[in-house]
DUF4872 domain-containing protein
Amino acid sequence: MSTVIDVDARGGQHCETTALGVLLRHQGIDLSEPMCFGLGSGLSFVYWDSRSMDFPFLGGRVKPFDLTRNLAARLGLELLVQETTSPRRAWENVAARIDAGQPVGLQLDSYHLDYFRAKVHFGGHVVAMYGYDDHQAHLVDTGAQGGTVTTSLTSLAQARAARGPMTARHRSFTLTAPRNPPSPRERIVPAITACAAAFLDPPIANLGHRGIEKAGRLIGTWHRRTDDPRRDLPQAALLMERAGTGGALFRNLYRDFLAECAQLLDSGHLRTGHRLYAEAAVLWTRVAELITRAGESGEAGPLVQAGAVLHDLARMEREAMRALSRLADEPPTASRP
């Protein structure tokens, strides 16, 4: 049996920021979950569909683990990532770190975890592990999944070994802070402008503001993509609102990040971005409600309405990100106490 002492195990809203919070606090860095998400330039959008998929997917954040890499680089943290095809080596990597008194982040497929309520394969799930005994692993997951939880070592091994979309090869990682890490406030502008640049100039039409516009054009056809709209449409809406997104497809988290930034920095561009993302968050929840209504009623009308809202959202988020991108040209000053 081995347990890391003094782990601050708060279950957040999103899996990766929850795990990062555990690892950061153990290094003496206590950030709010929205600040963690924003400093990691976590916001994005993807309209994901292919012939192999039964139904389209709307994603609202960067790829799994990109947020972790971004945050570590921005705060000057040492990010040690270990991957292997060997289950034995994978366990040794994790156990050695925990035995040394350091919590470990794990990327895995949540389907296999004993405590997980929604039995859906998702290979980009992230948890923090802080202890183990002969039979169980002690983890920190989101508040919705129970916060401080346990799962059998067998189920953990299955989750880590899973292969499929977004999975990694038994990925584990730790964070170590330098002696004098940069102030998070000093990294706000680079984090925001990097996120805005990626959103405004995506490499393909499925991403960023172009992806939202594409979703608006195609969502009206979703009722023809399924044999069971009562199942698939509400499920799509549920993923947007409650599957670790913090609500409104991560827009609530980014809104709160910008609000926190506005308390630290005095900038009209920042206030504009916050105002627009506050409005966008409400509209994303409206889109989810319309998708649910379409599934429950069997009518295509709500999907057409959702498409119109998505067109508004593409314009609104493009305007917000353009304002935020100007932070680099006119650096804000510290807000008054």
